[in-house]
Design brief:
Helices cover about 20% and strands about 30% of the residues. It is an alpha+beta fold. A six-stranded mixed sheet has the order 1-2-3-6-4-5, with helices on one face.
């Protein structure tokens, strides 16, 4: 059985997908880009600012699921420019101070709304 997770504290889906799905003790979040849920617009100009917004969005989905960043076991990260890798890591690391999850990180040709990054997670309840 699956449970759709939805919160107004994270951006609404901009396509035919759910913000997050819970099933069999796992929560899968859809990829988050740096959209401010209050405005519907990309927040921040720099990779650091955009990464903070992405992590806030993920945090809101985790909270709506009754979880924290400690429950994240895997992330997949997409960067529009791999030259932003070190700056992205500096912000990302603040959210995983202990026992960072497994991770994949890719450079991509483009992201929705011109975002600099997108991050999705797999979590264990």
């Amino acid at each position: 059985m699956k449970n759709v997770i939805s919160t107004s504290n994270a951006p609404a889906a901009i396509g035919p997908y759910s913000q997050a799905i819970e099933t069999d003790g796992y929560v899968f979040t859809s990829g988050q880009i740096p959209i401010n849920p209050a405005t519907g617009e990309v927040e921040g100009k720099t990779i650091e600012e955009q990464t903070e917004q992405v992590m806030k969005n993920i945090g809101a989905l985790l909270e709506a699921s009754g979880l924290t960043f400690a429950n994240v076991v895997k992330t997949t990260c997409f960067l529009a420019d791999l030259n932003d890798f070190a700056a992205f890591n500096a912000v990302y690391a603040k959210y995983f101070p202990n026992e960072a999850p497994a991770r994949s990180c890719f450079a991509v040709a483009g992201l929705p709304k011109g975002a600099k990054l997108e991050v999705e997670t797999i979590c264990v309840k």
